[in-house]
Amino acid sequence: MQRRILFSLFLIFVWLDLISATDKYDPTTLVFPPYLHTYGIRKATRMHLFLFVQNRTRFNNPQGLAAVRLKSWDDPTTEKDDDEVTVYGVNSGENNIIYNTSMTGLSIYGLQEPSEQRLNNPHGIAANADGDVFIADTGNNRVVRLINSGKQLQFVAAIGKKGNGPGEFNKPYDVKLDVEKNIYVADAGNNRIQILNAAQQFIREISPSTGAHLINPGGVALIHADAEWNFYKESFLIVIDSLNQRIHKFSLTGEFLLKKNTRQFGFSRANLQYADIDYYGNIYVTDLTNNCIHKFNRNLGYITSYGRKGTGDKEFIEPRGFTIYYRFGQIFVAEAMGAQYYWIGTDIFNFKTNFDAEKSLITIHFFLTEPSFVTADIYNDKGIWVTRLFQKRFMNSGTHEDCWQAKMYGTKKSLPDGKEIVSAFKNLKYIPGGKYTITYTFEPTYSSLNYFSKEMNGYFIISPQK
């Protein structure tokens, strides 16, 4: 099924590389969607924005992002529209919110609203499928609630005022919603996270007074056990703090779980901005100083950093806001003068093969940046397929080691189309002596599954078996 995707501010395209990595810069932890999903628009730049909105606004200090599939957009009779998402972008320097109202249309909140409804240096934003939108209105020391009925953002209420009491704020920086519509606010000037209920009433806080040593908290992200797209059915909260140099992990009730500073994952200088969490609990954090996105597993184990400084493919200029549409692994990134759009892919590092001639044992080592479906095939020196070790085996991110005893085997379900079983499992046979290639094919588990794969090859020589 060809899924359609919004054709607006946040669209990108790049030709997908379906062969193993070369010496060019081509990381694939994130990949660009194929042409039919983006119509050739690779990045949203100032020029793209001008074409859509003329001179009504301009990119000026983009900040937080949020992406949701609005219920009001859904046609329950078809799944073809399930990835038509609404993306909200905070355009802080112009005190407005840019968002799409259709596949091709953009609208702007914050141009002609009355004084009470105007934003002042806003940063973080959160939204849900019901149309609720919450903004950390930093300069006004409050949180603003808007509603989107499907076509237009409308002001609902201002929450809080300047202060340090319950429900009061001092330079709130970011905001997130959980499935129960509780609101988590990074109350930066008060060194705390405030949690409000669905009625916008104060419930509790995570702060130095509760044993959480937060210093000027910034970007926040959360995942809830009851969320539909949550592989491990865990709940936790991520908070960036300490001059954008540290990441905390808490339970949603405020229990401290883990923390990591940037030096611990190899960056002496960093400026961490915003975060989000994917279906597998992996944590993504933008880094303005290093012009990249850092990725961690759900236990804050460092996985990889994606991107570098530049205006080319898979490069960023001061990335800030970051959001994931969990169901299909669609990722949106705001940067200094625009935005980019990706799908979650997969990448492989340190792929190595080792052959123990005495044991006729081949060991394959590699590091995987994303949970993937993995297929392993053996070919002889003429490129003829010999046997399949396994097909579409699910492997999690992290370090892996496979072992193979140089035997030929296969089952009907594991063989490529048109291939016959070489031998049954109950009668395994060693392959003949000779030169062989082992090919691992890695495929992501999200929407990019049918559009992207990556191959890695290892080579070995088998001595004739006695």
What does this structure look like?
The strands form 10 sheets. Strands 1, 2, 25, 26 and 27 form a 5-stranded antiparallel β-sheet that branches. Strands 3-4-5-6 form a 4-stranded antiparallel β-sheet, with no helix packed on it. Strands 7-8-9-10 form a 4-stranded antiparallel β-sheet, with no helix packed on it. The chain has helices at residues 35-38, 46-53; strands spanning 30-31, 43-44, 62-68, 86-91, 96-100, 106-109, 125-127, 132-137, 142-148, 153-159, 172-177, 183-187, 192-196, 202-206, 220-223, 236-241, 246-250, 256-261, 272-277, 283-287, 292-296, 302-306, 308-309, 315-316, 322-325, 330-335, 338-344, 348-356, 361-368, 372-380, 385-395, 398-404, 407-408, 429-430, 434-444, 454-462. Helix content is 3%, strand content 43%. The protein folds into 2 domains: 30-344, Neuraminidase, CATH 2.120.10; 348-462, Immunoglobulin-like (Sandwich). Strand 17 and strand 18 (256-261) form a beta hairpin. By secondary structure, the chain is mostly beta strands.
